[in-house]
Amino acid sequence: MQHVASATDEVAQEKVIDTKKAVPWIIFLIFFAVLNETVFNVSTPEIAKQYGITPTGVSWVLTTFIIFFGIGSVIYGRLSDIFSLKKLIVAGILIYSVGSALGFVLQAWYPAVIFARAVQGAGASAIPALVMVVVARYFSPTDRGKVFGLLTSTVSFAIAVGPVVGGFVSSSLHWTYLFIIPLFTLISIPFFNKILPEEKRKAGSVDILGAALVAFSVAGIIVYLSFPHWYYLAASLALFIWFITHIRKANDPFIEPSLFRNKLLRGGLIVGFLVFCTVMGIMFVIPLMLAKVNDLNTSTIGLILFPGAMCAVIFGTIGGNLADKKGNNFVVFIGLGLLVISLVAIAFMVGHSPWFIAAALLPTYVGFSFVQTALANRVSLTLSVSETGVGMGLFNLITFISGAVGTALVAKLLDGGMMEFYKNPALNSLAAIPYSNLLIIFAAVVIISGMFYLRIFTKKASAQTSETAAA
Q1: Is the keyword Disulfide bond assigned to this protein (predicted)?
Q2: By C-alpha distance, which of 410, 306, 436, 316 is closest to 358?
Q3: What is the pLDDT of residues 282-308, one digit of tens each?
């Protein structure tokens, strides 16, 4: 109790930066960092053709970036608890740009392209990880919900337009020009040098072994989800066990074991994993469902999904404002409720008009943007200043891994024929059965997540974190 109360006091003592000046540049930087997650997706057939490689071989263009992006999210978070945020953000932008330049210059050799994507991921991961820390550390509690909402909207927009931008650049110029896009982030360096406060190096040292164990453990999980061989998972679990043993003995561990004893942080991470895993599973299964059951082509499926993606852009900001006015718990429960209603509705509409499904998807996107915004804000309020870096890094890592887990799990459930156990009487096609059952299961997982959230984030817990503006 004492620990969380003191966290709010510590945050209040930090210098508060100018929101109006900072937010536009933060949005600019986040957009170009997240854009690179999806901008190469539509170009993979062209890349495979150019280098004469298999689909598995070309998948490394995406997988390599994802691995280094996921690893970096938690490592940069930990580094920000020791080193200057300003210097780390500038370093991340520079690394991101160097990787982009290498990819463009060395485009004739495929291994060099993969190496460039690794460097890109290592640099780009600094941006969302450190921006979350900037918001948690230097924005006033009354502004955080709004800013987290803007970040959610920006991320949603970047992910949605990434394939569109990628397709336009690839068809108009060449896919290698996609490496040029991240160079725009360089123009933000003078601003961050000016707006972010100077910070001295804090006490502590970098636990290199701990960082390496986290990095290879996360990499093992991501590789296993992309290429499901048992030895990748076994290696990842073994490294994770080694990491847990190591941080209990190390003098200055990469992640303090006490952080995992923070009940509210632990609860937020679990709820985040369940919800993000579910939503990413939904985003993976809906296009498959529309293609298989409704026999739609790619462009039509894109039109079905686009209105929902734009709703996420708009309602992310609205969710942030609601969180500031009504509290994070209020927004989380509204979001979870919208998700349940949407999933049940879609489960009964599978096989019917795809435009009904497009309408039913709107609450999915809105609900997810609400939960994502409010949960990030809620987690930030459970951390002391000295914990914000690694704490928000863990939150980023959980959301990242949960997306990969959700996608892989859905694929296995559908491929294994395990979702054909019940026929919904509202369905008009046998092909719709597995998708309908899967959506009902997703709704049940969201309900369980809400019950768990209610148990963890009680009124008593809310009082401990002082999540109102009065803090």
Answers
A1: no
A2: 306
A3: 877 787 788 788 887 766 776 787 787
